[in-house]
Amino acid sequence: MKYPELDSLSKDELIGIVEDEAKNWLAHDGLWFQAVERRFGIEKAIELDKEAWSYFTVIEAKRIMKRLGLPEESGLDGLEKALTFRMYRRINDQEILWENGALILKMTTCRVQAARERKQMDYFPCKPVGVVEYGKFAETIDKRIKTECIACPPDKIERNFHCGWKFSIQ
């Protein structure tokens, strides 16, 4: 085996490692963003975050496709499956449902936004980054998929989810 240190661990211990690694990834992402924001301001930080996500989300989608054996153009069914294997899925609560032939993803609890709520801070305005992230992820799964934002900060939170995305085939 490639990782002998994992051989003796239970399923629960392995899941714990996956969750910890997802938290570490998110912590690094947030710290990187804050460093850029301090140095260059929020607008530049969001611009650079969008650029980074435009590459990362494609890499993540391709790795998930390979691991799950998803063919290109696997449609909304393939996207539904792939969305459940994204790294952030291990630390955020999401709901996926079908509505009039479209796939809807609602991030019911986003770890970043929930932390900001607890600290009584304004929501992080992640919509511009989310448009790139979710759009490119879906396009990588199937280039026919169109992504629409239902709601995402800085949109006012008057709903039971932090952000929502609608995916459909043109």
Give a quick summary of the entry.
This protein is an alpha+beta fold and 170 residues long.
Layout of helices and strands, plus pairs?
Elements: H1 11-40, H2 42-68, H3 75-83, E1 93-99, E2 102-109, H4 111-118, H5 127-141, E3 145-151, E4 163-169
Antiparallel strand pairs: 1-2, 2-4, 3-4
Helix pairs in contact: 1-2, 2-5
Give the strand order of the largest sheet, numbering strands 1, 2, ... along the chain: 1-2-4-3
Global Rg = 17 Å
N-to-C CA distance:
44 Å
Mass-distribution shape: globular
**Helix proportion range:** 40-55%
| Main sheet overview | 4 strands, antiparallel
Q: Structural class of the helices, strands and pairings?
A: alpha+beta
Q: Count the DSSP helices.
A: 5
SS strand fraction: 15-25%
Number of strands: 4
How would you describe this protein?
By secondary structure, this protein is an alpha+beta fold. The chain has five helices and four strands. Strand 1 (93-99) and strand 2 (102-109) form a beta hairpin. Helix 1 runs antiparallel to helix 2 (42-68) and helix 2 runs parallel beside helix 5 (127-141). It is globular and about 45 Å long. It starts with 10 loop residues before the first helix and ends with a strand.
Index terms:
alpha+beta; 5 helices; 170 residues; 4-stranded antiparallel beta sheet; 17% strand; 4 strands
